[in-house]
Amino acid sequence: IFAEFKQRYGVMKIHHELNLELQPLQRRCSPRRISRLMKELDSHSVTVNKWKAASASKTKVEQRPNLLKQDFSTTGLNQKWTADITYIQTKRNGWCYLSTIMDLHPRRIIGYSFSKKMATDLVLKTLESAVKNRTITGDLIIHTDLGS
After folding, report:
1. Most confident of 21-35, 101-115, 127-141
2. Which of the following CATH numbers is that of domain 80-143: 1.10.10, 3.30.1450, 3.30.160, 3.30.420?
3. Residue ranges of the domains in the chain?
4. CA–CA distance from 91 to each of 52, 71, 87 (Å)?
5. Is the CB of residue 83 less than 8 Å from the CB of residue 94?
6. Residue 10: what are its φ and ψ, rounded to 5°?
C-alpha cells in the first residue's frame, strides 16, 4: 500500500486501506502495528506542508529610489551591499528566517542572522554583523527589496 500510493500514505491512511482489504477475510490490523512495521522498514511518508506567506506589515513601507538600477558592478569592497530574508522550513521549529547581507564586489555574505521570528531585530542583528566584519570608508549603498 505504501509503494502503491507513491510513499504518500502515512500510518492512518495505510491502516484504513489495509483494513478495507482485510475486511473480507474478517481480519484487522492496528495502527500501532503499522507504525512499528514502518519504523522497522525505515519507511516515512512524503509530506508536503503548504507554504504560508508572512503576514503583511501593518506599517506602510516608505518608497525609496532604486540607486542600483540593475548595475551590480563595483570596483572595490564596501561600495554596494544587498540584503534579503530567506524562509527556511525546519522539522523542529517550523518556519525560520535567515537574513543575509552580501557585498557585491566579492559576492560573499558578510553578515547574517537566523531567527524563528521575522522581526526588525533580525535585520538589525544582520546589519551589526556585517558592520563588525568590515571597515566602511566612503559611500555605501545597501539595496533591499523594501520587504519587511
Report:
1. 101-115
2. 3.30.160
3. 1-48, 80-143
4. 15, 39, 13
5. no
6. -95, -165
